[in-house]
């Protein structure tokens, strides 16, 4: 390619950039107008709802369907996520609580779902996230609910038993663990490895093979582990890319998780119900009598109505010894006829049913 051809392409790119910038700002102005229309049509005492999870899911799905490349559809959707995040911040910035400190996978999940323009607030514990959302101190919370390697996050499930709250969305995050060291670390004298208990479990085989005699210390989060090793010379941390960059650590070994498909699913919690998006999931808690065949009877209405169940977890009930509740995720919105009918039937057969919420399936 000649210098003249290269210059012509650069001129064309500059022209396209100007058009993209103009269109993004036009979209932002339109978003501001949407906010004004919403406020103008409110009843007295009613608060405007600026963030609509079902609408965002519909927009992202549509963008992915329209995309013809060469950019990958998920890459394109992430770009539009950031545009929507910035536009929403012009109407009303969202405040989102996550399991801190900064640099955790929960932090990464919050930014993946809401975009970089959100105001992210780190919390010390999962239950604290629930309390902040219930109190209205934050708009939404992001909590881990299950990992593909280690299973359910019981602290999150138990918090749903204690709080009246709605699930408004979900986000899936590929989890890549790295062994990180600080600038003062003597890599041939590592005697201690810090990480969250879940992460230590997800890297168990790798640690057994490479550091079998090194002490493994569970801390409150991977980011906390990264903070500790920054000032220590004989320790390392297991954490992700975000923590490595945030705390200025070096990757000694990358992607050390035992399973290459290691992923964690996070739930978005809030105080509002979400209308159907066209591709939804519903989560419920069901309490049943302690009798033979109780679970079988519970599942029959879903089977008869062709409702797909994607997850069932069991936790001890707070109502009595050796009694249990079932956490169930299913495909479909609670307002759809088949799901609604199935929920009504299991309500009649069970001790209690609590619908945690219907929400759009994860797009990215």
UniProtKB/TrEMBL annotation:
- Locations listed in the record: Cytoplasm
The EC number of this protein is 4.2.1.51, 5.4.99.5
Q: In which pathway does it act?
A: Metabolic intermediate biosynthesis; prephenate biosynthesis; prephenate from chorismate: step 1/1; Amino-acid biosynthesis; L-phenylalanine biosynthesis; phenylpyruvate from prephenate: step 1/1
Query: Which UniProt keywords are present, listed alphabetically?
Result: Amino-acid biosynthesis, Aromatic amino acid biosynthesis, Coiled coil, Cytoplasm, Isomerase, Lyase, Multifunctional enzyme, Phenylalanine biosynthesis
Which residues, by range, are in coiled-coil regions?
6-33
Question: SMART domains this protein is in?
Answer: CM_2
User: Which molecular function GO terms apply here?
Assistant: prephenate dehydratase activity
Catalytic reaction equation(s)? chorismate = prephenate; prephenate + H(+) = 3-phenylpyruvate + CO2 + H2O
Residue stretches making up the ACT domain: 283-360
Concerning Pfam families, the annotation shows: ACT (PF01842), CM_2 (PF01817), PDT (PF00800)
UniProt keyword Membrane present? no
Domain Prephenate dehydratase stretches: 95-271
Cited PANTHER family: PREPHENATE DEHYDRATASE P PROTEIN (PTHR21022), PREPHENATE DEHYDRATASE-RELATED (PTHR21022:SF19)
Q: What does this protein do?
A: Catalyzes the Claisen rearrangement of chorismate to prephenate and the decarboxylation/dehydration of prephenate to phenylpyruvate.
The protein's name is Bifunctional chorismate mutase/prephenate dehydratase
Q: Which organism is it from?
A: Thiopseudomonas acetoxidans
């Amino acid at each position: 390619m000649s210098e003249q051809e290269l210059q012509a392409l650069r001129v064309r790119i500059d022209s396209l950039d100007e058009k993209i910038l103009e269109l993004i700002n036009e979209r932002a102005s339109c978003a501001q107008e949407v906010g004004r229309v919403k406020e103008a049509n409110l009843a007295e005492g009613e608060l405007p709802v600026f963030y609509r999870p079902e609408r965002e899911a519909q927009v992202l799905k549509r963008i992915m369907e329209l995309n013809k490349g060469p950019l990958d559809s998920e890459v394109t959707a992430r770009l539009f996520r950031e545009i929507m995040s910035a536009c929403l911040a012009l109407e009303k910035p969202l405040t989102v609580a996550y399991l801190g400190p900064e640099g955790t996978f929960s932090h990464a999940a919050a930014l993946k779902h809401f975009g970089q323009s959100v105001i992210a607030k780190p919390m010390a514990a999962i239950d604290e996230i629930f309390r902040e959302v219930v109190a209205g101190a934050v708009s939404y919370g992001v909590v881990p609910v299950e990992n593909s390697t280690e299973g359910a996050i019981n602290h999150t499930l138990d918090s749903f038993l204690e709080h009246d709250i709605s699930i408004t969305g979900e986000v899936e995050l590929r989890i890549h663990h790295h062994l990180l060291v600080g600038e003062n670390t003597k890599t041939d004298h590592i005697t201690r490895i810090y990480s969250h208990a879940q992460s230590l479990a997800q890297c168990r085989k790798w640690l057994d093979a490479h550091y079998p005699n090194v002490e493994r210390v569970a801390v409150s989060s991977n980011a906390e582990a990264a903070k500790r090793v920054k000032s220590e010379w004989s320790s390392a941390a297991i954490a992700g890319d975000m923590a490595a960059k945030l705390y200025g650590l070096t990757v000694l070994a990358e992607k050390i998780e035992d399973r290459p498909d290691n992923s964690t699913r996070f739930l978005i919690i809030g105080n509002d119900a979400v209308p159907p998006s066209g591709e939804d999931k519903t989560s419920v808690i069901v309490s049943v009598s302690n009798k033979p065949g109780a679970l079988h009877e519970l599942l029959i209405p879903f089977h008869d109505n062709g409702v797909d169940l994607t997850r069932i977890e069991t936790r001890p009930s707070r109502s009595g010894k050796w009694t249990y509740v079932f956490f169930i995720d299913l495909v479909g919105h609670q307002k759809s006829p088949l799901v609604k009918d199935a929920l009504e039937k299991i309500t009649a057969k069970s001790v209690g049913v609590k619908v945690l919420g219907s929400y759009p399936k994860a797009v990215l």
